[in-house]
Write a structure and sequence with these properties.
Elements: H1 3-21, H2 25-35, H3 41-51, H4 63-74, H5 79-99, H6 108-113, H7 118-121, H8 125-149
Helix pairs in contact: 1-2, 1-5, 2-5, 4-5
Amino acid sequence: MLPHKHMILSATIGAAAWTVSGDPTTCAVAVVAGVLPDVDHLADYMYFRFRRGHRLILPLHGYEYAVLGIVSSLSSDDPIVLVATLSYLVHLFADQLENRTRPPAYWLLFRLWHRFRVESISAAPEAAMRGRVDDMRRIQKWWMHRVRRS
């Protein structure tokens, strides 16, 4: 899922949390927890760039982190922990639906077991590989546009 879609989902969660809690920090936390995990795509892009292969490493995308968040939420009455966990979980669910991955694909241990191979993780590996190439082109185009402007 593209970052702007994660931003919309996270901001919606954050606005609801702010309304319920009265604390604007919950909104910021929801956005950060729901968007920031996508920086880990850099690991995949770097692997593709230097190894010319497709892998779904995604070190910040893992239900293991969500389980830790749920346990922390249950043992704390801090709404910020709950909102961060909820926003992160929505991020994972949205990615999993949009990327058409196999059910356990967003568990880090599953991806590790399958050596991060797209063919073992994605229900549509060809589409996933094409998407990765398209992402790299978008990044390159964006970067070249920024360089020309400076």
